[in-house]
C-alpha cells in the first residue's frame, strides 16, 4: 500500500507519467469494439422490460411454498397465456411476473395460481400495472435522460468550452450504450431501479471527467506562450495527476455495489437488487474508463486541430529536435517522464559550493592576524 501511495504522489507531482494520449487510437478501437458488441446484443436480444414499462401483474406467493421455480413458471404461463418470469426470494416466497395482460384478467390468473400452488388466493399478493401507465413511465424516463444530457452539455460548454462538452457527451453516450447493451446480453429486467442506476452512474462518470477537465483547464492557461509543452503533454499530466484518485474512488464505489449484485442478488436471491446493482456496477467501471481513456484524449485531439495549437506543437518539436539532451526532465521523447521546471530554469548546482571570501573579513583588526 505504501508503494501505491508513493506512486500516486509521484504521479500527482509530475515526476512520472503514462502517455494515454499517444495511445489513444488503441483506446478508441477498444471502446468501439465494446460499443458495437453492446449494440449488436441490444439489436438481437432486445431489452427485457419490466411490467412498470409495459404493463402487467406481479404475484407474490406465501413463504416456503412447495412448488419450484420451473413449476410456478409453467403454472403462470398456462393460466395467463403469456410468458412469465419467476424469481425465488430470500424468504422462500416466489415472485411471479406476467407482462402484457389486462387488469381485469389478473383475478382469474390469481385464482388459477392458488389452485395450482395449493394455497389460499387471499395469501397471494397481486400488484397490477396498466399498459398505458407503463408507457407513460417509459416516455418520462427517456425525456428525463434527454433533458439531463442537454443540461450537462450546456453547463460544460459554459464552464469549460464546447470541445470539453462534446468529449464529455461522447463519454456519457459510451457509458449508457455499454450499460444498456450489457443488460440486453445478460437478460436482466429493466425496471425504474435500472433508470435510477443509469442516472447515478452518469453523474459519477461526469464528476470524474470534470475533475480531469478542471485540472486541464488550469494547466493550459497561457500555454501558447511557452515552447516546452504541447497540449497533449499537458493533457497527459492532467490524467496522471488524478489517476490514482480516480482508481481509488472507483474501487471504493464498486465494492458495495458488487456486494449488492453478487451477494444480495446472486447468493441471497433478492432479484430486485439486480435491477439497480448491475447498472451501477457496469456504469461505474465504464465511467472510470471513459473519463481516462476517452474524454481527455478526445479533447486533446480536438484542441490540436486549432491553428495556434498546431503552431505550438511545431515549435515544441523543433526545439526538442535542436536540443534533445537539454531539458529532457520535462517532456521527453517517449513522453513518460514529466517535471514542473520552468522553461528557462538555470541548471542545478551539484557538489559543494565554495563560499566567496567576505570583503569585511579581517576588518577591525590592526594586522588581520591572531594575537
From TrEMBL:
Q: Look up keyword Protein transport and say if it applies.
A: yes
| Entry-linked Gene3D superfamilies | Multidrug efflux transporter AcrB transmembrane domain
Asked if the Swiss-Prot or TrEMBL record annotates the protein with the keyword Metal-binding, the reply is no
- The record places domain Protein export membrane protein SecD/SecF C-terminal at 113-304
Which SUPFAM superfamilies does this one have?
Answer: Multidrug efflux transporter AcrB transmembrane domain (SSF82866)
- Which InterPro entries does the protein's record reference? SecD/SecF_arch_bac, SecD/SecF_bac, SecD/SecF_CS, SecD_SecF_C, SecD_SecF_C_bact, SecF_bac
Which Pfam families does UniProt cross-reference here?
A: Sec_GG, SecD_SecF_C
Q: What are the start and end residues of every segment in region (Disordered)?
A: 319-371
Query: Which regions form coiled coils?
Result: none
Q: Where in the cell is it found?
A: Cell membrane
What domain of life is recorded for the organism? Bacteria
Q: Keywords assigned by UniProt? A: Cell membrane, Membrane, Protein transport, Translocation, Transmembrane, Transmembrane helix, Transport
How is this protein situated with respect to the membrane?
Multi-pass membrane protein
Indicate, by first and last residue, each region the UniProt record lists as having compositional bias (Basic residues). 360-371
So where does this one cross the membrane?
26-44, 141-158, 165-188, 194-216, 247-270, 276-300
> What this chain does, per the record?
Part of the Sec protein translocase complex. Interacts with the SecYEG preprotein conducting channel. SecDF uses the proton motive force (PMF) to complete protein translocation after the ATP-dependent function of SecA.
Give the similarity note.
Belongs to the SecD/SecF family. SecF subfamily.
Q: How does it assemble?
A: Forms a complex with SecD. Part of the essential Sec protein translocation apparatus which comprises SecA, SecYEG and auxiliary proteins SecDF. Other proteins may also be involved.
* Stated name of the protein: Protein-export membrane protein SecF
Q: Which organism is it from?
A: Streptomyces tibetensis
What taxonomic classification does the UniProt entry list for its organism?
A: Bacteria, Bacillati, Actinomycetota, Actinomycetes, Kitasatosporales
Amino acid at each position: 500500500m505504501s508503494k501505491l501511495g508513493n506512486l500516486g504522489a509521484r504521479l500527482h507531482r509530475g515526476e512520472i507519467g503514462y502517455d494515454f494520449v499517444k495511445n489513444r487510437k488503441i483506446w478508441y478501437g477498444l471502446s468501439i469494439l465494446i460499443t458495437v458488441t453492446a449494440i449488436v446484443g441490444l439489436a438481437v436480444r432486445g431489452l427485457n422490460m419490466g411490467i412498470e414499462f409495459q404493463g402487467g401483474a406481479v404475484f407474490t406467493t406465501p413463504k416456503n411454498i412447495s412448488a419450484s421455480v420451473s413449476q410456478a413458471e409453467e403454472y403462470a404461463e398456462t393460466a395467463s397465456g403469456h410468458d412469465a418470469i419467476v424469481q425465488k426470494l430470500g424468504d422462500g416466497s416466489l415472485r411471479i411476473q406476467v407482462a402484457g395482460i389486462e387488469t381485469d384478467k389478473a383475478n382469474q390468473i390469481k385464482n388459477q395460481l392458488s389452485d395450482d400452488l395449493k394455497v389460499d388466493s387471499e395469501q397471494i399478493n397481486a400488484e397490477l400495472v396498466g399498459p398505458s401507465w407503463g408507457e407513460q413511465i417509459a416516455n418520462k424516463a427517456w425525456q428525463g435522460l434527454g433533458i439531463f444530457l442537454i443540461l450537462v452539455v450546456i453547463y460544460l460548454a459554459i464552464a469549460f468550452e464546447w470541445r470539453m462538452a462534446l468529449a464529455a457527451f461522447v463519454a456519457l453516450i459510451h457509458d449508457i450504450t455499454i450499460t444498456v447493451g450489457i443488460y440486453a446480453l445478460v437478460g436482466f429486467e429493466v425496471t425504474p431501479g435500472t433508470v435510477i442506476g443509469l442516472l447515478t452512474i452518469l453523474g459519477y462518470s461526469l464528476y470524474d471527467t470534470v475533475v480531469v477537465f478542471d485540472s486541464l483547464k488550469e494547466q493550459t492557461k497561457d500555454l501558447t506562450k511557452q515552447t516546452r509543452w504541447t497540449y497533449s503533454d499537458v493533457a497527459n499530466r492532467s490524467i496522471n495527476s488524478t489517476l490514482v484518485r480516480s482508481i481509488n474512488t472507483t474501487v471504493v464505489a464498486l465494492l458495495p455495489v458488487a456486494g449488492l449484485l453478487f451477494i444480495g442478488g446472486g447468493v441471497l436471491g433478492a432479484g430486485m437488487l439486480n435491477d439497480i446493482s448491475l447498472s451501477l456496477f457496469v456504469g461505474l467501471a465504464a465511467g472510470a474508463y471513459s473519463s481516462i481513456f476517452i474524454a481527455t484524449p478526445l479533447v486533446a485531439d480536438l484542441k490540436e486541430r486549432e491553428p495556434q495549437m498546431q503552431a505550438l506543437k511545431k515549435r515544441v518539436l523543433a526545439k526538442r529536435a535542436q536540443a534533445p539532451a537539454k531539458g529532457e526532465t520535462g517532456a521527453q521523447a517517449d513522453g513518460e517522464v514529466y517535471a514542473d521546471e520552468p522553461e528557462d530554469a538555470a541548471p542545478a548546482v551539484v557538489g559543494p559550493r565554495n563560499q566567496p571570501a567576505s570583503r569585511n573579513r579581517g576588518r577591525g583588526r590592526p594586522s588581520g592576524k591572531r594575537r
